[in-house]
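Worked example 3 (structure in, sequence out).
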C-alpha cells in the first residue's frame, strides 16, 4: 500500500513543483520541514560534513545517526535515506540493509543510485513495500567522470532507458543529476514517476540541491547551484567578535555570570 506522503508526491507530477533539499542534522531539518516536500539525508554528508573526498566513504552506521536526528525532527516532509555505496549490491543485501535503516531511523523511503543495473533490486524492494527513489545521470558513487551527461546519443539512450526501467520498477521519484536540458525534458514527459532535477533544468517535476551549497556553507559553486546566502562569512564574523571579546575581557559580562 502506498503511503499518503508518497501519493502526494506522485500527484504533483506535471502540476506542482516538488521541493527537495538535503539535511544531516536536527537544526537544519527543523527549518527545512516547514518548506520542503522531501528531505534527503544524502551521502553527500561525507564531503560536506566529514571532509571526505568522495561519497563512497560514508558508512551506513554513520548515515543512520544523521537520519535519526533528521527524521525525529520532521513532522511534515517525506524523509529519504540515501543508501551508501556498496550497501545494495544485490537484492538480499539491499533488503537486509534497507530493513536495518528503516527500523533504526524510521525514514519514509530510501534512495539508490543506478538505472537498469539496479532495476531488479528496486522492483524487489518496492514489492516488499519499501518506497524507493531512483538516481540517474551523474552518479557520484560510481561515475568515472563528473561532467554533464547526455551530450552524445549513446549516453542519452542509456540514461533514458535507465529512467524508464526505474519508473517501471516502481520508483516513486527519480533524481536526475547533471544531464542536458532536452534529455531531462524528454524523460520527465515520458515516464510516470516524478523527476527531481539537480543540474537537470527546469523541465523536471521537482528540484533538489545540497542545503550547505545554497546557504554558502561550502565552496561548491557549479553552474547548477544558486547561492542564497553567505553563511560562512556570518559565522566567521561571529567567531572573530567572540575571540576579540574574550581577549579584551568583554565576555563574559556580568549578565552571563551566576551569583548567589
Ligand atoms: O547525497 C546527496 O546529497 C544527493 C543529492 C544531491 C541528490 O544525492
Amino acid at each position: 500500500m502506498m503511503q499518503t506522503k508518497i501519493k502526494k508526491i506522485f500527484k504533483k507530477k506535471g502540476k506542482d513543483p516538488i521541493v527537495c533539499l538535503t539535511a544531516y542534522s536536527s537544526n537544519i531539518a527543523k527549518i527545512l520541514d516547514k518548506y520542503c516536500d522531501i528531505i534527503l539525508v544524502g551521502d553527500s554528508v561525507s564531503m560536506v560534513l566529514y571532509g571526505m573526498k568522495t561519497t563512497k566513504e560514508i558508512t551506513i552506521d554513520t548515515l543512520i545517526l544523521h537520519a535519526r536526528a533528521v527524521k525525529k525532527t520532521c513532522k511534515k516532509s517525506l524523509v529519504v535515506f540515501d543508501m551508501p555505496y556498496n550497501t545494495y549490491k544485490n537484492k538480499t543485501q539491499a533488503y537486509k540493509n534497507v530493513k536495518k535503516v528503516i527500523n533504526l531511523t524510521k525514514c519514509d523511503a530510501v534512495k539508490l543510485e543506478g538505472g537498469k543495473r539496479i532495476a531488479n533490486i528496486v522492483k524487489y524492494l518496492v514489492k516488499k513495500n519499501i518506497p524507493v527513489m531512483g538516481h540517474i545521470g551523474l552518479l557520484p558513487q560510481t561515475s568515472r567522470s563528473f561532467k554533464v551527461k547526455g551530450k552524445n546519443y549513446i549516453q542519452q539512450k542509456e540514461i533514458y532507458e535507465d529512467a524508464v526501467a526505474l519508473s517501471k520498477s516502481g520508483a516513486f521519484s527519480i533524481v536526475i543529476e547533471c544531464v542536458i536540458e532536452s534529455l531531462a525534458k524528454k524523460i520527465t514527459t515520458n515516464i510516470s514517476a516524478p523527476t527531481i532535477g539537480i543540474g537537470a533544468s527546469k523541465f523536471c517535476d521537482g528540484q533538489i540541491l545540497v542545503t550547505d551549497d545554497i546557504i554558502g556553507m561550502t565552496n561548491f559553486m557549479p553552474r547548477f547551484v544558486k547561492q542564497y546566502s553567505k553563511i560562512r562569512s556570518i559565522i566567521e564574523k561571529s567567531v572573530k567578535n567572540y575571540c576579540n571579546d574574550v581577549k579584551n575581557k568583554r565576555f563574559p559580562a556580568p549578565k552571563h555570570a551566576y551569583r548567589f
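Notes: Residues 22, 40, 42-44, 82, 175, 198, 208, 210 surround 3-methyl-2-oxobutanoic acid (CB under 6 Å). Strands lie at 18-22, 38-41, 78-82, 109-111, 132-137, 173-177, 195-198, 206-209.
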